[in-house]
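Query protein
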Amino acid sequence: MVHGLLVRVVVKDPAFIDATFVPEFSRLYWHSNAAEKDTLTYELHRPEAADSATDAERDEASRTLVILERYTNAAALKDVHNHSEPFKGFGAWIGEMIGAGNIASVKVEHLEEIAVPKPAADSGEAEKAAADAPAEVVAATGGDPNGILVFAGARPGEAPLYMQHAEEVGQRVAALGRRLVYGGGTVGVMGAVASAADKAGGKVLGVIPAALAPREASGAPVGEVVVVDTMSKRKDIMFSNASWLVVCPGGIGTLDEFFEVLTLCQLNAYRCRVGLLNTENFFGPLLAMMRHLVAQKFLEAETVDALVVRNTPGELFEAMESANDLVAVGFAKNLKW
């Protein structure tokens, strides 16, 4: 039986939340999501005051945080999570903050799952859709396939313009009112994209494998983060949530993701618009290699020609607006998956 927990923390000063609490909570958050296999949910939320709320209620809401926890069973909480070093360290820090007056109160509420039976009869369509979709996709997406997926490196790279352009990409995604979908890291080029989108008021969905969280995530998470156990699940969720792909400078992982999208589109298993942000001619050698593949009859020219390649974020996003999706050509047009 799933065991749940709601922890309600009220601080004295709203500024304490982002300046101190969230950074301190970060290690426990990432450890719980990445290293505890029986932790189903470990999230930090801010309550939203109702439109009819009084000034006092709005003030309390601005000073309140809610930690939502779900475990496969009570033992996963008591015997594993509560005995972890990050939990012990955070618990000691909470005690210090209460003593110093920075935290006004902490209320813990245990939740018992109620088994809800299926309705006696229905059309079966919703049940079939839920069964066909990976659980992580259903939980994370909210049913929005129109995000903008960005592939980018977990390192800043050599040229300063890589990070500058990354920030502009995040800002432009937010300005379009579309959700940024990315690999969930908070460092390097990908982290710059996500942070900029978040600061600009955009929605952000990050998807990160548990094994990569310690390497690619540092500090507080950005937006909504889904932690998965495999790279393939990461890609499944990202692909299902986007109709545009923007590829920024990055390493082998970025190129792997880019070529998987090309492969799926080429085989009629996926379709989206694909743009390369060619900062400092980063993708010039790669494009030359792809043209070589065309010349040697290993690749259709239509696939390369469909790529939108521009040198600046402004030029790229303008061109993407009127671009065509990358689709299968030749025999692959008729493939059914």
